[in-house]
Write a structure and sequence with these properties.
Length: 210
């Protein structure tokens, strides 16, 4: 068996076992529209706490299941309703502060960006670093949370492709896949949606191995 065939098998197995984006797990039908982009911001906010990625995605799904899929809907919920939903998702220890953070984030998005994260994209004008920095104006979203947002958003914002975090690139190397982001994206043809799946799969695979 040739090296290319071996790597193709590794890639197929990786995507079959781990190739689900965290946005999909959270119940987000990701599109370049205000509501799903807000939902992705919520997921990035939840993922910024020292809590497992799976719990963050499950909790985001619980918030969206409650109907809070837009900034307006998030702000319409009471603080206690948000706390309860966070608890149902398993997001404990951080639930009370996070209930406040989610309201603050939704308010900031409405007040500064008209509720539409596409304005950040427009202002960044293809500059990934500028976008990562702009995302950090939202409460709790630091560099890690901003990168999580971009890792998932590359599926609908092609200018972010290829977006892999350090953990994903390290895992790629361990599997014998390219560690150069461009070359790694090329193994799935550079398609934005597939690159996002691959990026998530590498992170999931790394987490599964501890």
């Amino acid at each position: 068996m040739s090296r290319d065939q071996v790597l193709e098998g590794v890639l197929e197995e990786l995507l079959a076992e781990h190739g689900r984006t965290y946005a999909d797990q959270a119940g987000i039908t990701l599109r370049d529209k205000p509501a799903p982009l807000f939902q992705l911001l919520v997921l990035a906010t939840l993922s910024s706490a020292p809590i497992s990625a799976d719990v963050a995605a499950t909790t985001a799904h619980e918030l969206f299941r409650a109907g809070w899929r837009t900034p307006e809907r998030m702000r319409s919920a009471t603080w206690q309703q948000r706390v309860d939903a966070l608890g149902r998702g398993g997001y404990r220890r951080y639930d009370e502060r996070t209930a406040t953070v989610l309201e603050e984030s939704a308010a900031l998005l409405e007040q500064h960006h008209g509720g539409d994260l596409r304005r950040l994209r427009r202002d960044a004008d293809g500059d990934r670093d500028a976008l990562v920095e702009a995302l950090q104006e939202f409460p709790r979203v630091g560099p890690t949370g901003a990168r999580i947002f971009c890792r998932e958003a590359q599926a609908v914002w092609p200018e972010l492709v290829p977006f892999f975090d350090d953990r994903g690139l390290e895992r790629a190397g361990g599997l014998g896949l390219p560690t150069d982001p461009g070359a790694l994206a090329a193994v799935v043809g550079g398609d934005p949606g597939e690159v996002a799946r691959l990026s998530a799969a590498l992170v999931r695979s790394a987490l599964a191995d501890g």
